[in-house]
Every structure is written in structure tokens, then in C-alpha cells.
Amino acid sequence: MDAAKTLALFVITALAEIIGCYLPYLWLKKGASVWLLLPAAISLALFAWLLTLHPAAAGRVYAAYGGIYVCVAMLWLWLVDAIRPSSWDIAGMSLCLAGMLVIMLAPGVTD
């Protein structure tokens, strides 16, 4: 799978996970409807399925996905929660992305 497709799949996977966790948060902390648990469960099932679409070894995929997840979560903080990430947040995102690139682009790694 090429890098652009992998990145897009990671971003979609992260959104599915975040939505699956955010909806119960709205129910538990913000008094939203209990019915939000249904789309949350569907979103988390989608998240798990999306992780299976990667051809690399599962552990490597999960580790690399974590870097993208952190970045998408920070974008969610900014776009949905209306909290602008700090310079520390951006530094942390950069470190996570660097780690993800080391894992996914290491030469000679076989699955």
C-alpha cells in the first residue's frame, strides 16, 4: 500500500476511534442522549475493521497508527472543542509523527 493511501486510512481510522469515544463522552459528561451509544459502537467497530485493512504486521500498524491518532486528536481538539493546540502540543505531535515515520519507513523491515 502506498504512503498516501496508508496515511488516509490512518486518518479515517483515527476519526472512527475518536468519534466512537467522543459520543459516550457527550452522553456521560454533557447530558446528551443515551442513543449516542449506538453510533459510538458502530464507529468503534468500524475503527477495529479499518485497522485490519493494512498489509503490515498488526503490531507495527498499531504502533504507527498511534502517531497519526495523536495528531488527529489534536486537530479534533482545535476544530471540535475549539481549543487551539499549544506549542507544546505541536512539539508532541511532531515527535509522534517522527516516531511513526521511523517505524513505517525503516529500511529492510519485513512483515
Task: Give me a quick take on this structure.
The protein is built from four helices and no strands. By secondary structure, it is an all-alpha fold.
Walk me through what this model shows.
The protein has 111 residues and is mainly alpha-helical. The protein has one domain (3-105). Helix content is 76%, strand content 0%. The protein has four helices and no strands.
SSE map:
Elements: H1 3-30, H2 37-51, H3 58-79, H4 87-105
Descriptive key words:
111 residues, mainly alpha, 0% strand
| Rg result | 15 Å
Helix content class:
over 70%
What is the average per-residue confidence, as pLDDT, rounded to a whole number?
90
Number of strands: 0
Order of helices and strands: HHHH
Number of domains: 1
Which ranges are low-confidence, i.e. pLDDT below 50, for 5 or more consecutive residues?
none
Principal-axes shape call: flat
Q: Structural class, please? A: mainly alpha
Describe the largest sheet: none
Total of DSSP H or I helical runs spanning 4+ residues:
4
